[in-house]
Protein 1
Amino acid sequence: MHYLGIILASIIAYFIGSISWSTIIVKRVAGVDIRTVGSGNPGATNTVRVLGKGWGFLAALLDGLKTVVAGLVAVLFSLIPSYLFSETSYFIPALFALIGHCWPIYYKFKGGKAVSCFLGLIFISNIWYLLIFLVVWFIAAAISRRVSVASIAGAVTVGIVIWLPWLNGLNSFIWEWNGYQTWVDQAWNNAWTRFAWMNYLHMPIYENITSGHSGVKYGFASGMLEIQIVNIVGGLILLVRHKPNILRLWHHQEPETFPRLTPEERQKLWYLRLLKRPNHDERKELRRLKKIEKLEKKAARMNERYEAKSGKVNQKIEKLDNSKNNEKSKTETEVKITVKEEPSKKNRK
């Protein structure tokens, strides 16, 4: 059971990855299920279509952080001073967070396309992978005007680049599953090409290895080959999730995410932007009107609260009046009954 930490961290990571932030954000902001609007994909791109760039960026950021949080959970497990958690990797749980994003248990296993989670995965692997992916993504998006093409191109590029040892702080094509010696001798001391920045959370391992002590391991630093395999699997999942997009691209039916504008449309857009720009006086007037609107909204809210409170008070008063009337009616009926009973007794005598 040396891999108990990996198993527990992977289970937790899957449930973390199953949280669909795009679905939550669109539901809270617009009151709509994102799977029924736009492309139907619960991802950041569809969030941009529904709510705009700001909310789409927030959804992408939160989805990417899921893999980072999963890795940090695994790091916490690896710090437990027990042999059951001594070999806890943090890239495998991060991969399970990506799997949870694609097939979430909370949403009937219908999730996103893993782009944001893949960014988080390569971020915890190597910061250079992330930078290369973003550069390729922006170039491909500018040329093709399609997010799907940019994501596929970025994933394929990272899948090729990760096999270059010099990018990972090594000097040759030498890989080991958990090559501590290679890691310590080369990658650890190379500050600019650290192949896994999260390995630096495992300082006790480094101290035990370099000092030659055979004490208790406080954690497990993932090796370079493991990182490459996990990133390859994550990239393959991304490509599988983009299978409909690939088929549409093959048949030339994939719509442009950022459609090109004709020169006439650009001129019209430019003129409209110029017309919409208010001058200094207009800005002051707009600010004044906005303040008035805010005050009116506050006044309306206060009136609603006052009416609600007054309504509750009136209800309480009505209840008290009703209870008093009921008591009076009861006493009157009792008096009538006693009055009727007295003459009947006299007649009997």
Protein 2
Amino acid sequence: MAKSIPSAGLRLRLRLRRNARRRSRKSTRKIPKGVIHVQASFHNTIVTVTDVRGRVISWSSAGTCGFKSTRKGTPFAAQTAAGDAIRPVVDQGMQRAEVRIKGPGLGRDAALRAIRRSGIRLSCIRDVTPLPHNGCRPPKKRRV
């Protein structure tokens, strides 16, 4: 017996129903604990929220929040980016988090303040800025 081919309208409805199912399953995932990574450079601040295994749940940066050029490096931009990255995970039920801050930028403290204000309990705040152990050889001294 041959199957009948569904009409275009029916195919579209089936596809939409399948996509709706996928989306709803992803948003209902509860994440009780996570890790918040703050990368603060002099020119931008990037905030990434992951679960304990390291899978990215949400991220934001000063650039994606609408700040351009030199304003991306400001503390206010970092605060906005942190709030923007944390809002979806608070809705998903995150209660505790560990914060890892990397970089020398101005947005370090502002992002941390925004994270504290969000209502997530912080279990640990760790500075993971890479430091050289006498890294590369400096250029030779300039003779004038």
Protein 3
Amino acid sequence: MFKAPFYSNGRIGRIEYILSILIFLGGDLICNVTLGSPSKNGAYAVILIVLWVFMLMQGAKRCHDIGNSGWWQLIPFYFIWLMIAKGDEGENEYGDPQ
């Protein structure tokens, strides 16, 4: 689980994707409470960028698991489908399932 979280290659399942969302939201909440607004605190802005990159890479891997390009995650509310859709069984063009 969480093998190479900052790379978009490979596939991840629903559970890892949902955990990634929770990590993103938890990290954002902790930073917001402790550091204040990202527009007023540069450290929060940097952490937020890292969290967004993490989430985009995990989203791309989840898209790969259902046989789509990572660009599909840019469709509004597509993340909901990523949380509920079953991944492709067996190997697809993005590799073996986890």
